[in-house]
Every structure is written in C-alpha cells, then in structure tokens.
Specification:
Elements lengths: L2 H23 L4 H5 L9 H20 L6 H4 L18 H22 L2 H4 L2 E5 L5 E5 H25 L22
Antiparallel strand pairs: 1-2
Helix pairs in contact: 1-5, 1-7, 3-5, 3-7
Length: 183
C-alpha cells in the first residue's frame, strides 16, 4: 500500500459514505434532524455541520501546502468556520449541497493534484486557537479522513435510533480485490 493510493481510496470512500448518510438523513423531517439527541454536537444536524466545519478548516490548511491544489483553493468561496460547533448552513438542503461540493473537491484533489512527495512534507499551520504548529502532512491527511469516519459513526447511531439504516459502511467494499473476483 502506498499513501497516495490509500488517500485516493479514502477520498472515494468518504464521498460514498457521505452520500449514504445524507440520503438516510433526508428520510427524516428537518425538525427530527435538529432535535437534541445527546450527541457531542447536539443532534444529527449539528454533527453533520461539525463534520463539514472540520473538513473546511483542514482543507483550507491543506490548500496552503501547494499552489497547485486549485480544487481546494476553490473552496475558499464557502463559509470560513470560526468555531468547531458553528452552524454553517441552517437548512439541510443547503448543508447537503455544500457537502457534495466539498466531497467532489476532495476526490479531485486526491486524484488529480496530490502527489506522493507532498504527503512526505511537513505542513505549517495555526490551530483554531491561533497557535502555530508544524506536522507531517500525510499523517494530517489520515487524521482528516479519520475525523470524518468517527463522526459519521455517531450520525449512523443517531439515525439508527430513529429507525433509519444508512446501509453498509465497511471500507472493505472500496478496497480493490486482487483475485479478480467481484464483491
């Protein structure tokens, strides 16, 4: 396994899972999505917003790593989160549209713009408290995808508690088979 191919696979998995989660969430009334559910970010809607907030924060940092990341730089037109619990979009439809736009940018970035040597370089950035730090870019990219998976798991549980199944979530479905068999 090489890190670049793994990143591309994670980008595709991320898009597939977000499509499934949002399709499942769309089965509920918007009031139910926003209903307090005891989750860290309050509700299904609050958690979905947080995932997008986290993505936009990280992708803005990633965009500074290399000028050739035009797909990430184009996301600068979206709201710039100021807090991890900020409600970027008050309506589910707008949130879903932004999610799809961001997911397509992530896939384009990973497939067309990211290069293996980029992942081996450090990234200097400021955290949300304004503290400067410098970390391994490849590890930050893995954290980025892990963060999404963690919170989608929370959303999956919250949806299941309301009788909505998001379907198969296994990353295994996205890993190509080496024996030539389908499935």
């Amino acid at each position: 396994m090489d890190v670049l191919s793994h990143t591309q696979l994670l980008a595709s998995y991320n898009r597939r899972m977000n499509r499934q989660v949002y399709a499942a969430a769309a089965q509920l009334e918007e009031t139910l999505l926003s209903e307090p559910a005891g989750a860290y970010f309050g509700s299904i809607f609050g958690t979905l917003n947080h995932i997008l907030v986290g993505d936009l924060i990280w992708l803005a940092r990633f965009a500074t790593h290399k000028e050739a990341y035009s797909s990430l730089q184009a996301l600068a037109e979206l709201p710039c989160p100021q807090a991890l619990d900020q409600l970027l979009y008050p309506r589910f439809g707008a949130l879903a549209a932004a999610r799809a736009l961001v997911d397509e940018a992530i896939v384009r970035w990973a497939s067309d713009e990211l290069a293996a040597p980029d992942l081996a370089q450090p990234l200097a950035y400021c955290n949300v408290q304004g503290e400067a730090t410098r970390r391994d870019f490849g590890e930050l990219v893995m954290h980025f995808f892990n963060h999404q998976t963690h919170h989608r798991g929370q959303v999956s549980t919250l949806l299941a508690q309301r009788g909505v199944d998001i379907g198969v979530t296994d990353f295994l479905l996205d890993i190509p088979r080496l024996d030539g068999n389908a499935g």
